[in-house]
Amino acid sequence: MTATTTLHVGNLPFTVTEAELRALFAPHGDVQSVNLVTDRDTGRPSGFGFVGMDEAGAQQALAAVDGQVLQGRPVRVSPAQQRQRQGGGPFRR
């Protein structure tokens, strides 16, 4: 099984689709997942997302896609940072 490297993709047009984002990254390697983030309250696109790729493809895509213009906006690509888990549950004082 191939390890997946996740890329953070920012400054996306609000009209971009997962299929368009997949097509942008596909020439550089095996795209394993695409996730466009939406605002949880409104359901509107947030202008960023994540692309999971094989490690070699992710490195190639990072160099090739960062700064590329998509629907009039320069796309920003960087390695995704692991999100720190925060404690859940009820608010306590």
How does this model look, in words?
The protein has 93 residues and is an alpha+beta fold. It has a domain at 4-68: Alpha-Beta Plaits (2-Layer Sandwich), CATH 3.30.70. Helices cover 20% and strands 35% of the residues. The chain is built from two helices and six strands, in the order βαββαβββ. A four-stranded antiparallel beta sheet has the order 2-3-1-6. The N and C termini lie far apart (46 Å). The relative contact order is 0.29.
How would you summarize what this structure contains?
By secondary structure, this protein is an alpha+beta fold. It has helices spanning 18-25, 55-65; strands at residues 4-10, 31-38, 45-54, 69-70, 73-74, 76-79. It is built from two helices and six strands.
